[in-house]
């Protein structure tokens, strides 16, 4: 059925009827999508069947155009590689698909779940919920596939997995994917997340009280089959414990802990069967014992440990040096509780060989303060991360070289090039981003600038605002993009990319006026806005000149290919979506076999 | 902990001053416009780093109408005029009725503060909270009642303020307004940006000056930027825009698209519009600068004095170090705005 959530109908009403819709109680919810028609813009709303006729009648009486999308399903088909329509769709359905999928991709590649310079976490969450819900009800399979796209943020993926697990598949529900394909996809998505994000997802699952069989299998499979389970047991002990308790059930977890606390030879056959019933059967004694010990440790057992990291963890409470093999933050936590007279610098010195790439970069300032030298290989970091590092710690020749090489490699991997490109980089204060993630928008814009410069035979770059210090442009000042755009046009560029968060204030709307004037005097130079910042009020990225220049979300420089696909998604959704799907690692996703091959496969018991 | 100094102990200094004196050392920056609100940044290199903002200070309440500030720094803390706290705690939100000093490394309590939630019991626990500044329409009332006792002195005006915004509740809770218009205010505040060297701003709605703000340093101003733009003036602009009492200001000069036939014309139109806007901005400030103000000293700490200033158009408070004005917060008075409306109305004719 081509219906939105809870059986609501999708109705398109002239944009001018916004007041009538507000009076009818549909003003506060953002409209489903906004589509251009010959009569002007129309807004799509999800309206409950009982109210549908009355609202439509009211709008018609006021002289506004109303169109109701047909109830028939979209009938998307999927041959394992490409999607298409089973039968020619209604034009409105195609437009809805293009807009909904376009808006979803825009939000999914930019959303981080954190506050931006302008929007709170709650606003971001609400805006994302609406976007996710809309595509999910159109086709849950397509929703899942798009979540697997490489540029999608972990936050969007967490929301997606949670949604797919929360709502069991119904027979009449439209979905490109079969049940088993959806399971494969879910497993792939969880495995592709960094462990801390996966445990965060499991916490979200526990909070939402989702503990159906599919969810429990997914969680236990992820935990038991990780080669890093021992490391996770010390590093994410709390997250692991919560996940196990949720997946096994409180009673089963308690029984498991009690049994596993004893040596294997002290367990009775009956107890062994109970544990196998809860945790599943494993191929090989060594693996089974490793998993059992980690599970027992995560659940709180600390007797008769044999795995080195777990032993170090317990021993380091008495002797800090014994924790040499532990991760930095784990040992630092132990130091702050059990060794208050020891310094953080000592912990850093003990663990410096084991720091992750992210920690090595993040701890540079602390290391310098504490006189500890930590070697960093800059080539292992994303360009945006390096720019943020440079903003905080200063630009060096080595970083500059790495950024240069990175941009060159990325540009050469994209099968597109430009002749004479104009780049307008917004460096006003708002590009500094929110205090929780300072410099992220400007760092991403600069990383993108580097790639676009290398994709062009001749690139002219102009900056709006900002202060140049130590080869870096720091965001500051107001936003006046219009004169800079005119500068570029006067220099005969073939196309213009504006890298901006979409906020203009000197004065607001001036850029739109200039674009309008350019079009009226016959200047047809393509102008496109690329934004790395998600804005909740616009349900995606904020447009500088809505309706006049396209705006695309580019959270990372690698996503530029996606951005170019996004230019066609609203007009030709199937072509664009197939292009996105062609970039997915389908073989990797669907070649993972049955959901659980061993371990918790057959005997996942119901939680108490 | 020290109580705030008693007014009777201060021998008030009275006199006259002008905006040109109060804004000495400042120059206007490029005007920022969004919708009906405009901001002319005031830029200056004159700074007084000895005065710090309470933005990171610890704050608490211990009785209704009593606000307690803890100044751990070795500088003087200046609480901006009508600073308030709305917290996510089962506790009564509070706001100050005037600006105030907190001595270096001291804790000071002010018992003339106002409760801004009529029916919420509880006290705010010690901590650092994000500060707000009372909405523009309430500030004049709050300042006029600064010497009155009674924690509920602003309730009637909050009711009026909410009702004016279409919030028909019988309890005077200021947070009703901010909850109802949270999204709009965030979006609105997002449109404006602090610029380097900015120590103050002239704020206009519908092309008319509604407030003038100046702070001791650019760092101080940055700390009060969001409360000023979002809660104080943003709420006023939002209400005005909803009621359509003011239109897009004449000081926002649109491009004359019909006169543009080439890139050269477009460049000229752009430059002309920018020049006109700058001229208008300077004109708006020029209109104010020689208006005389009466001032009356309210408080004194070391070499700084806190004074209340007023004339027919403005009312507000300033902080002076001798003749040098470090802080200024002026808002247009209700009466002046009503007079302007009358003067702007068309004469009767048939």
What's this model, at a glance?
Chain A is an alpha/beta fold and 608 residues long. Chain B is built from 8 helices and 21 strands. The chains are: A alpha/beta (608), B alpha+beta (350).
In angstroms, what is the radius of gyration of chain A?
27 Å
Largest sheet of chain B: 10 strands, antiparallel
Quaternary structure annotation: heterodimer
SSE string of chain B, helices as H and strands as E: EEHEEEEEEEEEEEEEHHHHEEHHEEEEH
- Helix percentage range of chain A: 40-55%
Model regions low in confidence, pLDDT < 50 over at least 5 residues of chain A: 593-608
Summed over residues and divided by their number, the pLDDT of chain B gives a mean of: 86
Distance between the termini of chain B: 68 Å
Strand content of chain A: 5-15%
How large is the share of residues in beta strands of chain B?
25-35%
Largest sheet of chain A: 5 strands, parallel
**Helical percentage of chain B:** 25-40%
The side-by-side strand order for the widest beta sheet of chain A comes to 8-7-11-12-15
Radius of gyration of chain B, rounded? 21 Å
Q: Per the principal axes of the C-alpha atoms, what is the gross shape of chain B?
A: globular
* Helical run tally of chain B: 8
Count of DSSP H/I helices of chain A: 27
Give keywords.
heterodimer, A: 608 residues, alpha/beta, five-stranded parallel β-sheet, four-stranded antiparallel β-sheet, 15 strands, 49% helix, 11% strand, globular, disordered C terminus, B: 350 residues, alpha+beta, ten-stranded antiparallel β-sheet, four-stranded mixed β-sheet
């Amino acid at each position: 059925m081509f219906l939105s959530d809870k059986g609501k109908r999708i109705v398109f009403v002239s944009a001018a009827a916004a007041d009538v819709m507000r009076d009818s109680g549909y003003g506060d919810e953002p409209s489903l999508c906004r589509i251009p028609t010959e009569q002007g813009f129309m807004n799509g709303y999800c309206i409950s069947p009982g109210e549908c006729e009355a609202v439509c009648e009211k709008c018609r009486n006021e002289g506004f155009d109303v169109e109701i999308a047909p109830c028939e399903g979209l009938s998307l088909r999927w041959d394992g590689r490409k999607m298409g329509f089973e039968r020619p769709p209604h034009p409105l359905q195609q437009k809805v698909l293009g807009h909904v999928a376009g808006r979803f991709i825009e939000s999914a590649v930019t959303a981080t779940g954190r506050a931006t310079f302008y929007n709170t976490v709650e606003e971001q969450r609400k805006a994302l919920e609406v976007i996710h819900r809309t595509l999910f009800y159109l086709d849950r399979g397509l929703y899942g596939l798009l979540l697997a796209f490489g540029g999608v943020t972990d936050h969007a993926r967490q929301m997606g997995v949670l949604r797919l697990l929360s709502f069991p598949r119904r027979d009449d529900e439209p979905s490109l994917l079969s049940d088993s394909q959806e399971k494969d996809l879910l497993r792939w998505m969880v495995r592709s997340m960094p462990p801390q994000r996966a445990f965060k997802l499991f916490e979200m699952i526990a909070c939402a009280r989702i503990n159906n069989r599919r969810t429990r299998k997914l969680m236990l499979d992820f935990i038991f089959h990780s080669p890093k389970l021992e490391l996770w047991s010390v590093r994410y002990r709390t997250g692991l414990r919560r996940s196990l308790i949720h997946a096994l059930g409180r009673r089963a977890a308690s029984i498991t802990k009690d049994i596993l606390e004893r040596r294997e030879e002290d367990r009775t056959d009956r107890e062994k069967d109970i544990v196998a019933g809860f945790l599943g059967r494993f191929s090989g004694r060594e693996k089974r014992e490793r998993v059992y010990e980690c599970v027992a440790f995560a659940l709180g057992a600390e007797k008769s440990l044999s795995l080195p990291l777990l032993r170090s963890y317990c021993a380091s409470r008495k002797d800090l040096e014994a924790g040499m093999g532990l991760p930095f933050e784990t040992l630092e936590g132990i130091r702050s509780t059990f060794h208050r007279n020891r310094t953080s610098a000592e912990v850093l010195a003990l663990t410096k060989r084991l720091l992750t790439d992210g920690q090595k970069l993040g701890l540079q300032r602390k290391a310098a303060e504490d006189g500890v030298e930590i070697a960093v290989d800059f080539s292992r970091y994303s360009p945006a991360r390096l720019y943020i590092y440079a903003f905080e710690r200063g630009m060096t020749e080595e970083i500059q070289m790495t950024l240069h090489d990175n941009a060159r490699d990325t540009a050469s991997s994209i099968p597109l090039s430009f002749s004479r490109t104009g780049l307008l980089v917004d460096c006003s204060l708002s590009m500094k981003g929110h205090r929780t993630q300072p410099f992220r928008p400007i760092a991403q814009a600069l990383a993108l600038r580097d790639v676009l410069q290398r994709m062009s035979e001749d690139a002219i770059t102009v900056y709006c605002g900002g202060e140049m210090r130590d080869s870096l442009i720091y965001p500051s000042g107001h936003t006046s993009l219009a004169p800079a755009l005119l500068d570029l046009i006067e220099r005969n560029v073939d196309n213009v990319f504006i890298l901006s968060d979409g906020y203009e204030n000197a004065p607001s709307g001036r850029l739109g006026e200039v674009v309008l004037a350019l079009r009226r005097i016959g200047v047809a130079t393509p102008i496109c806005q690329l934004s790395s910042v998600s804005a909740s009020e616009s349900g995606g990225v904020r447009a500088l000149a809505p309706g006049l220049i396209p705006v695309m979300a580019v959270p990372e420089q690698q996503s530029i290919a996606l951005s170019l696909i996004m230019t066609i998604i609203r007009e030709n959704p199937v072509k664009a979506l197939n292009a996105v799907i062609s970039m997915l690692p389908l073989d990797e996703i669907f070649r993972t076999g049955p959901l659980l091959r061993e371990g918790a496969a057959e005997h996942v018991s119901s939680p108490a | 902990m020290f109580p705030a100094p008693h007014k009777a102990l201060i021998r008030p200094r009275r006199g006259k001053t002008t905006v040109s004196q109060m804004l000495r050392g400042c120059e206007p920056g490029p005007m920022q416009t969004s919708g009906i609100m405009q901001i002319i940044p005031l830029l200056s290199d004159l700074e007084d780093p000895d005065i710090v903002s309470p933005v990171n200070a610890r704050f608490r309440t211990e009785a209704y109408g009593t606000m307690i500030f803890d100044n751990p720094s070795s500088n003087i803390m200046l609480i901006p005029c009508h600073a308030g706290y709305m917290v996510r705690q089962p506790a009564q939100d509070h706001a100050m009725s005037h600006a105030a000093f907190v001595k270096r490394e001291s804790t000071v309590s002010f018992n003339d503060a106002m409760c801004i939630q009529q029916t919420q019991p509880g006290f705010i626990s010690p901590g650092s909270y994000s500060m707000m500044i009372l909405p523009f329409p309430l500030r004049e009332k709050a300042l006029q009642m600064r010497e009155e006792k009674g924690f509920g002195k602003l309730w009637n005006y909050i009711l009026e303020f909410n009702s004016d915004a279409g919030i028909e509740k019988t309890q005077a809770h200021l947070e009703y307004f901010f909850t109802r218009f949270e999204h709009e205010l965030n979006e609105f505040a997002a449109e404006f940006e602090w610029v380097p060297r900015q120590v103050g701003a002239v704020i206009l709605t519908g092309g008319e000056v509604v407030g003038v703000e100046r702070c001791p340093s650019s760092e101080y101003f940055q700390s009060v930027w969001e409360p000023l733009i979002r809660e104080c003036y943003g709420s006023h602009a939002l209400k005005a825009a909803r009621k359509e009492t003011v239109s897009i200001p004449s000081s926002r000069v649109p491009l004359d698209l019909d006169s543009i036939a080439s890139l050269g014309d477009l460049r000229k139109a752009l430059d002309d519009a920018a020049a006109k806007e700058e001229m208008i901005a300077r004109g708006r400030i020029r209109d104010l600068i020689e208006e005389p103000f009466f001032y009356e000293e309210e408080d004194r700490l070391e070499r700084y004095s806190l004074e209340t200033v007023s004339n027919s158009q403005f009312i507000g408070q300033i902080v002076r170090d001798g003749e040098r004005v470090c802080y200024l917060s002026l808002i247009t008075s209700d009466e002046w705005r009503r007079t302007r409306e009358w003067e702007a109305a068309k004469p009767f004719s048939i």
